[in-house]
Amino acid sequence: MKKYFASVDGQVLLELIEEKIQDERLRELIRDIVHSHRPGLPLGNLTSQLFANVYLEPLDHFVQENVRAFAYLRYCDDFILIHTSREDLRQQVAPIEDFLQGRLRLELHPHKMFLRPWHWGVDWLGHVLYPDRVMLRKSSKQRMQNSLRTQVGYFLNGGRKDEKLLRATFASYSGLLRKTDEGDLKASVQTLWECL
């Protein structure tokens, strides 16, 4: 979406929330939070992340019920449609734009829409998605490897990283790799951990 957090309409958001929440005290608290920042939602606020997903739930339903696609993925305001026909995908843009503008008062970002063959890989959220596998983006993989090298070096040299923090780092990266097809990298991270 174009300038998503700044474009969230407070009144539309409150209507969506009040469809789901009946408790008046909670509604009042949410109204106070939503009205504390205008326009849109403040970046970094924990409630903003929750509200951002609530706000786009109608888009999820619209796409699932009205748009012809093999797959639809959304994380916050980024989404992907996958289809076997390039032309069918092109035809789906206008109904989505109409829905976003009419129901949610949002716009698609004109410079962030890409149409490309899935077998080339779709770069999304630090990963590259293919029809038969999920890989880490090269830059994500490099950052992870650099971070691990640095933190293990500090740990082995008695530096400022303690074992608890090192464990958390390895757990985080293992979780990141769990849903990928990065077998060699998974094995390397596991071997490195076992050597410590």
Structural class, judged by helices and strands? mainly alpha
Question: Spans of 5+ residues with little confidence (pLDDT < 50)?
Answer: none
> How much is the radius of gyration in Å?
21 Å
Strand order of the largest sheet: 3-4-5
Number of DSSP helical runs = 8
Gross geometry: flat
Helix content: 55-70%
Mean pLDDT over the residues = 88
The beta-strand count equals 5
Q: Main sheet?
A: 3 strands, antiparallel
Helix-strand sequence: HHHHEEHEEEHHH
Portion in beta strands: 5-15%
Could you tell me how far the N terminus lies from the C terminus, measured between alpha carbons in angstroms?
44 Å
Overview of the molecule:
The chain contains eight helices and five strands; from the N terminus they run ααααββαβββααα. It has 196 residues and is mostly helical. The strands form two sheets. A three-stranded antiparallel beta sheet has the order 3-4-5. Strands 1-2 form a two-stranded antiparallel sheet. A hairpin with a 4-residue loop joins strand 4 and strand 5. Helix 4 (46-66) crosses helix 5, helix 6 (138-156) packs antiparallel against helix 7 and helix 7 (163-178) runs antiparallel to helix 8 (183-195). The longest helix is centred in the first third of the chain and has 21 residues, at 46-66. The protein is flat and about 55 Å long.
